[in-house]
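Form 7-S
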Amino acid sequence: MNIPYSPQEPKTIRLLFTRIAKTYDVTNHVVSLGFDVFWRKKFIKLLEGRNRIADVCCGTGAMFPLLGDRILAGLDFTRAMLAVAAANAGARLTEGDAQKIPFQSETFDAAIIVYSVRNIPDVLSALKELHRILQKDGLVAILDFGVPEGKLRKALYLLYFQNVMPFIGSFVARDKSSYHYFVNSVLRFPKRQEFLELMKKAGFKNSRYLEYMGGAALVYLGEK
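Output:
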């Protein structure tokens, strides 16, 4: 299938999320069999004690109800997603690029990206920007979909991920190519040690990753 979306062409990614903004959350619940909500709730426990949080690539604002006024700012480059996010009060919303974050340096004690880092063309530049806006000892926390390791577990996961999920997701989202793009973006994105190397290059220390459900979701953590 010809997939008209690519992180290297930001206009196409903006078009993608403009098209699916209103169905985005429901579609993610369906294709992840509800685990996306469970993973978010588990993820926020890693942010205990952090009260000045930037939600970068905030999308529809799904993290706002979970973190409340601890989120001081939400950033996304798709206006349609921010329009949905506006219903979740409690954070200042800004339209902008994660590769050139329009926030002052050393402002936040934590910065998060949830289910979105794969859509950034230059991930290293975005990580450097996250490092810049964090205060000393600030935490970066990134949650995204992954692929389990282990021959049998990986094979079973990919059977669903590549052959079933794209069709369900595209049907619910009403965009034929959207979740085919989603699958490709997950499979091609640097994972585990490769991503930790990018974090190290961006200046983060104590970088590590956690696996949820055997690696179906991955969390990356690091401190400034």
